[in-house]
Structure formats: structure tokens, C-alpha cells
Design a protein that fits this description.
- There is one protein chain.
- By secondary structure, this protein is an alpha/beta fold.
- The chain has two domains: 98 residues, Alpha-Beta Plaits (2-Layer Sandwich), CATH 3.30.70; 140 residues, Rossmann fold, CATH 3.40.50.
- The chain is 25% helix and 22% strand.
- It has a five-stranded mixed sheet with strand order 6-5-7-8-9. The protein has a two-stranded antiparallel sheet with strand order 1-4.
- Strand 2 and strand 3 form a beta hairpin.
- Helix 6 packs across helix 7.
- The radius of gyration is 19 Å and the shape is globular.
Length: 264
């Protein structure tokens, strides 16, 4: 039976498929389908709008229309039925037609000296480095300063090791092609099991990459902790576009928004 109530509305023209709303929706009402955020069922949306502040394109809004009533029991069944595979098909998939990260750019690289073998020392202190492969009980995580890096950053930044990796434990991945829900769970387990000292999120300037910061913030909320958190955004030429410290208040506000949805 349909009733008049508030429910999320998605502007598909503005949506670039970054997936941040998927992370923010505790009920699993939003999924990325064919590169766009999609409300999969009216009954999964509680109408509280916890996802609104997470969209960098302003593609989400609350409207009032006739819709099926919110069904918390259906939400529970929906969440229990959703698998978390190593790579979720259709979730932040490769078919996002308007995502800026798919735009072709021809760059004019600066000439670089030819190094001799072994002349550039590696700052890598551990293995593996992929987010999906690092277990929460890995010994190198204890007391670590984490560098959570989008994998493209290591290619874009010519002195990645010396500038960002030295003294940090690196975890790399791609929030566009990997399963961000799996990322959130893995980081939540890591934060709960280890005394992490700090986290630096290193992402590219394209919108889909910004989901990496949302993953870390959501994982902190799930683990019930606040860890010093910095964000560094890299341009496609390897320059630093933005550097900022994410305050505890920001993370707390994100947690409250997520908690509103989870509490229904």
C-alpha cells in the first residue's frame, strides 16, 4: 500500500556514479547500476536523508511522493541476502559513462633522468599492499601510521615513495572498481584490532576517488573510534590539489547521519 511520505530522489544527470551515497545508506536502498546511483526499492528508504550530505554532485534530494512505506524487516532481509564478494559486479563498475576518471587526457610528461638500477631506494616496509589482501591481524598494522592510497596516485606522483610512503604502512585500492562495502568492513576490523596512530588518505581529484575518504570515515564510525585523519588530493599531473585535516567533529557528524538510518 502506497502512502504520501518523504523519500530520496536521484538526479541521474548530476550523478557521476562515485558511490558515496551507497556507503552512507545503512539500509542498502541505493546501489550503483549501469554507472548511476539507483533507489532499488521504496521500502528500503526510511526518508531520513542520511545520504544527502555525502553526494559531491548534489544529485540527491528528499521529495514527498506516494511510495511504499518503509519496511525495516524487508531491509533486514535485504541486507542479509547481499553477498560481499571479492569484487561486486555492478557496484562502482566500469560502465559509468560520465565519470570524469574515464575521460581521455593526453599529458606532456616532463623529461626525467634515467636512474641506474638500485639508485632509488624503496620505502616499502611490508607486503601485501592491496586493501583486500591485508588481514586485520597483520603485525605491521600495530601502532602504524596508515597511508590509504588510491592505486592511481602511485603512478601520478613521481616521488611517491619519498614524499608519502616513507614511515607509513600503505594500503592501496580503487574505490571505483572494488567493493566499497568490503573496504568499510575490513578497515573497521583493522581499526578495532590495532592501535592505529594516524591515517592519511591519498586520492586522485576525480569524484569517484573521493569515496576512499568516506570509506575510512564510515569504518571509524563502525569501530567506534576517532583516529587523526588527513586527506591529500592529487591532480593527474602529480601535483597536490588539496591537503586538509579531517576534524573529529566532521567524522562525528558523518557518524550521526549514518546512525539515524541504522537506528530505524
Amino acid at each position: 500500500m502506497k502512502i504520501l511520505r518523504k523519500i530520496i530522489d536521484i538526479d541521474l544527470e548530476r550523478c557521476d556514479g562515485c558511490g558515496q551515497c551507497v556507503i552512507a545508506c545503512a539500509e542498502g536502498a541505493i546501489e550503483i547500476i549501469d554507472g548511476k546511483a539507483t533507489l532499488v526499492s521504496d521500502t528500503y528508504c526510511d526518508g531520513l536523508g542520511a545520504c544527502l550530505g555525502e553526494c559531491p554532485q548534489g544529485a540527491l534530494r528528499l521529495i514527498e511522493r506516494e511510495a511504499e512505506d518503509f519496511d525495516p524487516e524487508a531491509v533486514e532481509r535485504h541486507l542479509e541476502s547481499k553477498p560481499v564478494p571479492p569484487a561486486a559486479e555492478g557496484h562502482l563498475g566500469p560502465t559509468a559513462p560520465q565519470c570524469p576518471s574515464r575521460q581521455i587526457c593526453i599529458l606532456d610528461p616532463a623529461p626525467a633522468p634515467t636512474p641506474t638500477l638500485g639508485s632509488l631506494p624503496s620505502a616499502l616496509s611490508h607486503w601485501p599492499v592491496q586493501i583486500r589482501l591485508i588481514p586485520p591481524d597483520a603485525p605491521f598494522l600495530r601502532g602504524a601510521d596508515l597511508l590509504v592510497a588510491a592505486d592511481c596516485t602511485a603512478v601520478a606522483v613521481p616521488d611517491f615513495h619519498g614524499r608519502f610512503l616513507n614511515g607509513r604502512v600503505v594500503m592501496i585500492g580503487c574505490p571505483k572498481f572494488d567493493n566499497v562495502a568490503e573496504y568499510v568492513e575490513r578497515f573497521a576490523h583493522i581499526f578495532a584490532a590495532n592501535p592505529i596512530r594516524s591515517v592519511t588518505v591519498l586520492s586522485m581529484e576525480v569524484p569517484c576517488c573521493s569515496a576512499l575518504l568516506a570509506v575510512v570515515r564510515k569504518a571509524m564510525e563502525k569501530a567506534g573510534i576517532n583516529i587523526p585523519l588527513d586527506e591529500i588530493v592529487i591532480g593527474v599531473r602529480g601535483d597536490i590539489v588539496e591537503t586538509r585535516t579531517v576534524t573529529a567533529a566532521e567524522t562525528s557528524e558523518a557518524s550521526k547521519a549514518a546512525g539515524k538510518g541504522a537506528g530505524r
